[in-house]
UniProtKB/TrEMBL annotation:
PANTHER family: HYDROLASE, ISOCHORISMATASE DOMAIN-CONTAINING PROTEIN 2. This is Nicotinamidase-related amidase. It comes from Idiomarina aquatica. Pfam families: Isochorismatase (PF00857). InterPro entries: Isochorismatase-like_dom, Isochorismatase-like_sf, Isochorismatase_domain. It comes from the Bacteria. Residues 8-157 form the Isochorismatase-like domain.
Length: 181
């Protein structure tokens, strides 16, 4: 199945300041998350952010500050956001069936959230270049496990071009001039 901008929401899971220094290839991961989130906002795709115990782990990374201003942020203590009623309430408010999930750590909160969303009937997409863990093996194993649980493994560019759907539009020209570099 392909992504549709009208049916999608972008979920950023726990991309928090105190986790970031330990994340393998953190600069690449945060750069790709920001890139895709900026495109989502340009296409009026809602952005939802979770923060795992922010008093201890800090708030969402400063590289995503502009995204935070346009997103809804939900605090959580469960590893899976789906275990938090406040998150479920916000998610259902959007009434979207496709969820693009990115964030940290791939093998813990991202994995548990994605699998439980899939079990609840959502179409879940994971851009593999927009997730990070401390150890590459944890990330790779989590991606394999999510694929085995029918989460669609994609890249940030796949998401962007599926959301855009076609070239030749004003939106495509604007985005390609500013973000598809």
């Amino acid at each position: 199945m392909l992504l549709s901008s009208k049916d999608s929401i972008l979920l950023i899971v726990d991309a928090q300041e105190k986790l970031l220094p330990a994340i393998h290839q953190r600069d690449n991961v945060t750069s790709r998350m920001r890139w895709l989130a900026e495109i989502a906002l340009q296409l009026d795709i809602p952005v939802l952010i979770t923060e795992q115990y922010p008093k201890g782990l800090g708030y969402t990374v400063s590289a995503l500050q502009e995204i935070i201003e346009s997103a809804r942020v939900v605090e959580k203590t469960h590893f899976s956001a789906m275990q938090e009623q406040s998150f479920r309430d916000v998610l259902s408010d959007y009434d979207k069936k496709q969820v693009v999930v990115m964030g940290m750590e791939t093998h813990v909160c991202v994995l548990q959230t994605a699998i439980e969303m899939k079990q609840e009937g959502y179409q879940v997409f994971l851009p593999s270049d927009c997730v990070g863990s401390r150890r590459p093996n944890d990330k790779d194993s989590a991606i394999t496990r999510m694929r085995d649980n029918n989460v669609e493994i994609i890249t940030s560019e796949m998401a962007a071009f599926e959301w855009l759907h076609k070239s030749g539009t004003d939106t495509f020209r604007h985005i390609s001039r500013n973000w598809l570099k």
